[in-house]
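Example S7 (C-alpha cells).
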C-alpha cells in the first residue's frame, strides 16, 4: 500500500469473511459490505462517504492507482499521486478521473451488452429517464460514445463527491430492487460495479464538472492474451444468447 497519508486501506467485502487483513473494514458503521460480490469496490466508497469526515474523497484500487504527472514517471507505489498534488489539482478542477479509455469500434452501449447481460443497463436507462430526467440526455449521448472514464476511480472535493455518490447509489439501489440476478453467472452478478463505470461521465457531463484526467497504473502484470481471449468469449457468448432469444 502507498505510504502517503492521502491513502486509507479499506478491506472491502469484510462482512463476507471471518478473518480480516486490515483494521479498517467496510462492514463498520453504515455499510453495504455484504453486497460486495455484486457492488465490487463500491462497497468501499459507500462505507467511506457514509462514515468518514472528509474534505476530499476518492477511490483507487489495490491494483490501480493514479500516478504523478510526467512522461517518464515509473509505475510503482512511490509514484502514486500524493496528497499535496491532489489538493493542488482540485484547486482548479472539480474531479480527478482516469485518462479516457477508447473502444473505437464499439459504443459504450454495444460494448456493455456484448460483454454483460443487457437487462440491467436498459433498466438503468428507464430509472434515469423517470427519476432524473435532466440526466437522461447525457446518458443517451454517453451510450453512443466510444470512450469514457472507467475503473470506478475518481477523487473530488466533499460537495462533488457527496453529490455524485448520493445520485449514483440512489440509482443503483433502485435497479437492484427491480432486478433478479439469481440466474446470472458469477461474473455478471458484479452488475452494479459494471453499471457505475458508465454513470460517472453522465454525472460529470450533466453538472458540467471541470475534469482533470490523470494517468492510471496497473500494478500487477497483465496477461493480455488471456484478457483478450476472455473478452472475446464473453462477447461471442452474449451475441449467441441474443440471437437465440430473438
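Recovered sequence:
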Amino acid at each position: 500500500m502507498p505510504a502517503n497519508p492521502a491513502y486509507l486501506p479499506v478491506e472491502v467485502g469484510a462482512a463476507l469473511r471471518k478473518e480480516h487483513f486490515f483494521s479498517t473494514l467496510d462492514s463498520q458503521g453504515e455499510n453495504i459490505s455484504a453486497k460486495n460480490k455484486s457492488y465490487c469496490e463500491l462497497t468501499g466508497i459507500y462505507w467511506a462517504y457514509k462514515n468518514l469526515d472528509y474534505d476530499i474523497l476518492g477511490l483507487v484500487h489495490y491494483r490501480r492507482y493514479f500516478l504523478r504527472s510526467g512522461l517518464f514517471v515509473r509505475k510503482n507505489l512511490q509514484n502514486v499521486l500524493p496528497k499535496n498534488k491532489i489538493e493542488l489539482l482540485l484547486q482548479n478542477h472539480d474531479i480527478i478521473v482516469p485518462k479516457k479509455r477508447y473502444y473505437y469500434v464499439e459504443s459504450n452501449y454495444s460494448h456493455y451488452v456484448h460483454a454483460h447481460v443487457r437487462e440491467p443497463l436498459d433498466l438503468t436507462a428507464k430509472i434515469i429517464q423517470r427519476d432524473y430526467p435532466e440526466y437522461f440526455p447525457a446518458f443517451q449521448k454517453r451510450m453512443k460514445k466510444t470512450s469514457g472514464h472507467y475503473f470506478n476511480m475518481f477523487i473530488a472535493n466533499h460537495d462533488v463527491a457527496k453529490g455524485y455518490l448520493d445520485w449514483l447509489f440512489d440509482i443503483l439501489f433502485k435497479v437492484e430492487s427491480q432486478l433478479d440476478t439469481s440466474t446470472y453467472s458469477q461474473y455478471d452478478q458484479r452488475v452494479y460495479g459494471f453499471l457505475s463505470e458508465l454513470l460517472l461521465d453522465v454525472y460529470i457531463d450533466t453538472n458540467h464538472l471541470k475534469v482533470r484526467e490523470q494517468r492510471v497504473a496497473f500494478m500487477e502484470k497483465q496477461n493480455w492474451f488471456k484478457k483478450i481471449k476472455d473478452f472475446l468469449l464473453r462477447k461471442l457468448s452474449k451475441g449467441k444468447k441474443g440471437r437465440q432469444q430473438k
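Notes on this example. The chain has one domain: 14-245.
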